[in-house]
Amino acid sequence: MNFSFKSAWLLVVALCVANGSFGWNKPTHMAIGAIAYRDMLAKSPRKLARVLAILRQHPDVNTRWAPMLRDSSLTESEKNEYLFMLAARWPDDIRGQKNPNDHPTWHFINYVYNPTLGIARTDTTLATGENILQAFALNRQLLTSNAPDSTKAIALCWLFHLAGDVHMPLHTAALVSPQFPDGDRGGNLFKIKVSMSNPTLNLHAFWDGMLLGSDTFRAADQLAVQLAQAHTRRQVPHRCNRDIGKWSRESFELARTLAYKQGTLIAGTGNDGAVLPPDYVATVKPIAEQQVAFSGHRLATVLRKEM
């Protein structure tokens, strides 16, 4: 790891620790929203206009979001894209603020992975309350209901966000082992270090902030362009499939084989993280990039079909 990359990585780690471990971090969710926006702009501009019209009825459009959307350096199209970005990150923005639309258990599902017993099951989960699959179905129903557009705008934010979260492998898995008999909370209890000289963080936070640390429009847009070009819509497997259950099972397989390295990845004890294998970052980063691109394209497919 060269000096510049290490410095950037330390900044990302600091941001993850400061903001908690929610899923892809906020900048990455913004990039997912941007990919979906660009996909719809190219393929379904009329459906895009309907989505934008609903999002403009969101309760935060004239408060929390107003300063960003008034940015005079942005074109009108970029402001529309920014609205998609802000919608995609909104469920994380309201975390812990006593907002009635905050639903912590909606962000994940705990499929059980117990490598010690040879168990990798997507038909059983550790119970946590309503999970990401149930939440996605609920908000899809709201979108096609007679609910007011202000309610549909909130449902859209959740669809944007959950389409991203379900593609983050550690949002679909709970590692159960002698070290974590009640599960590792999707890697949140799994302590690691990127290198011996780096601070300890958890595996979930590592995955959260792997791709982007800056939440500016330009940074998120640049990542979106890069990933959408590297992983085009045509490359998305089953790209017309809107089954979030299938997406979650794909992510669980990535968690098992790559994030946890088929049960061979070692967690630290106490507050001391175990150093990641030397090839770990180089192996998993392309997969994280792929998953972010897939989630944006698949989100666009859902929006085209539902609107």
From TrEMBL:
Record-level Gene Ontology MF annotations: endonuclease activity; hydrolase activity, acting on ester bonds; metal ion binding; nucleic acid binding
PANTHER family: ENDONUCLEASE 4, STRAND-SPECIFIC NUCLEASE, PUTATIVE-RELATED
Keywords of this entry: Disulfide bond, Endonuclease, Glycoprotein, Hydrolase, Metal-binding, Nuclease, Signal
GO BP field: DNA catabolic process
Gene3D superfamilies documented for this protein: P1 Nuclease
Range of residues in the leader sequence: 1-23
Pfam families: S1-P1_nuclease (PF02265)
UniProt-recorded name of the protein: S1/P1 nuclease
InterPro entries with a match to the protein in the record: PLipase_C/P1_nuclease_dom_sf (IPR008947), S1/P1nuclease (IPR003154)
